[in-house]
Amino acid sequence: MFRRSHAGLAVLAAAGALVGCTSTAAPSNAGGAAGGPITVTAADTACELGAAEAPAGTISFTINNTGTKVTEFYLYGAGDRIMGEAENIGPGLTRQMIVEVPDGGTYTTVCKPGMVGDGIRTAFTVTGSATRSVNDSAKLAEATAGYQRYTASQIEALVPRAQEFVDAVKQGDVAAAKALFPVSRTYWERIEPVAESFGDIDPKIDGREDDERAPGVGFTGYHRLERDLWGTGLQPDSAAVADQLMVDIKDLQTRVATVELTPVQLANGAKELLDEVATGKITGEENRYSHTDLWDFEANVAGSQAAVAALRPVIDEKDPTLGPTLDARFTAVDQLLDGYRAGDGFRLYTELTPDDIRKMTAAVDALGEPVSQVAGVVTS
Amino acid sequence: MIRLSRRRLFGAVGAGAALAGVGAVAACSTATAAAEAVVPFRGEHQAGIVTAAQDRLHFVALDLLTSDRAQVTALLKKWTAAAERMTAGAEATPGGAVNLNPEAPPTDTGEALGLPAASLTLTFGLGAGFFDKLGLAAQKPPGLAELPTFTGDRIDPAISGGDLCVQACADDPQVAVHAVRNLVRMGFGTTEVRWSQLGFGRTSSTSTAQATPRNLFGFKDGTNNLKAEDTAALRDQLWVQPGDGPAWLDGGSYLVARRIRMHVEIWDRTSLTEQETIVGRSKGEGAALGKAAEFDLADFATTAIDKDAHIRLASAQALGGVRILRRGYNFVDGSDGRGHLDAGLFFLAFMRDPQRQFVPMQRALANNDRLMEYVEHTGSGVFAVPAGLAGGAYWGQGLLET
Questions:
Q1: Cβ neighbour number for residue A353 with a 10 Å cutoff
Q2: pTM for the complete prediction?
Q3: How many CB pairs under 8 A join A and B?
């Protein structure tokens, strides 16, 4: 949750329906890849594709998780711009991903067993180019549409992971709930500026104990359950609070489908996620009972990177020097965070030294400056 | 002397010799307020050393985050351009505060809009780490050798050292802070602030035209300082001479910074006689004990000046002729949480060789000066300060393009 109340992303006209998530959209095949969907065999340590190239246009993948971990599959453009993604593929499951790739070039396919890290990467070539408008507004429209697909995919993953967390709370399984808390928050934290645009939802889902509330409005959401789990012990109304969290998240899911973002909002969202890191995560403020701030840190940065990556074609056209700087600075933050991984997650905030925190601050400052330039560049 | 303000600079045309490279100088105002004074950025030596000491200070020490020489060079070029603009009373970048793309964050932070140049000087220095991180060990000047630990030192590493420093002095504190803030911002990703210090009032005069100010012990400080007018002494004691070390530092100097916490509450319980005995000067006039006027030469042959008096221990006579150019500032960094002010003197001094000048002086003081009962040194740094810049040159060019 953003501590300062300035609006994040304003909600525009609620009319435009969001493009469905690529992983579940019905195949609206308009000249798809010859030879049908490309098979992806996603194991715990390998990611094999049935083809290493495809013609520009609509490309279909069929992902088969043969491993033991939940996996994800992505097609990345330059700067890890997400062209398409299939998330939360359980062991033994098969999913379809259909993605529009209008430009030829070198792309990267990624399987992410366990849903963490950089994943198993393979170069993927797209040949030729599909017909489309190349003017600015078309590129910007594509950028916002791409980011909206990302938002939808995160919400789609958030709902089941939040449900697992909520179920554990309701069953009184404190250990399981504690383990699921930072994981389910990850999907929320990646898209928080969008959620923040609904002024009434963010305080309910992510408010803090000491926030000022209208009379009769209680402390609910993730941090209320965090306090119960780590601080006071589960309370008589913890189950009800858990149910309410699920109601609020599903409300968010419904409403996000109506959001239309402008490129400037997208760019500012990327910046605000880093502001969040600087003021809420590096300080240990947000997760004051669980100290799982580095999970949120990583998710905020990933969300920022996704928003920047969506805008990348426009950035590259207008300021060729900014993209490589952004790449280098995002990589530096990722590498720094990698040093704090522990098991499937991260070390606790309370285990960090002042020197660790100083290094994180420097890395986020270094990234925040070029990210703050994106809005100006895309509107120049 | 050229006087202009940021506001007047907008739309101004013409060029002035003192501002070569800035490219725009407004017509001189009829007003002659000192606040509007501009100190030339370029010249034989860097400004901010023998420049008549301004009233306010913001000092910052930074660390390099990279060992990429090209990245550092690019930043130093950017810093130089911004520094030259700001010392002329302009924004850090043309139109940077409010005249660029409104969807982008302004490239100048804006708090100095409408303020005059206020004699802003930005003085640039290099710490030992700069040479180590950039593979320039062979060019590291000998004067950057680490200072010894002196008796009574309580040095906090967090407010000591640094790979780079910028000393911003101005007659308006907001102008000095604006300059440091904008340079720091440009450095994100290449440099990070290691520590920074504000000074609210000068404690030294560097010109015979200036009155001697007082430190927080209430005494005039720097009466016998090196002054801009002592050309021969400056050559012998202040400016690095050919043969002293690597040639790129010729015409430069060294800066020693010491954050000296003063226990002013304890000092204030000391009798006037005791205070004057400890310092060796009268508190009112500032005359050496046994003399009548501030600038009467002290007579160290008499017993009027105690054998451990501060001015005796720090005198050139006691130190084999060694002198330094002091340019320190009073500070109060809030309070210490135990009911006392966190106050003191941020000692800044320029000299030709710290090992030969500062070290013996500080050793003598640390071991014998009764003032040490009332102070502790909490921060420390030594920086090599390159010579001034010719037209078109950038900070550090002489070193980086050696």
A1: 8
A2: 0.76
A3: 38
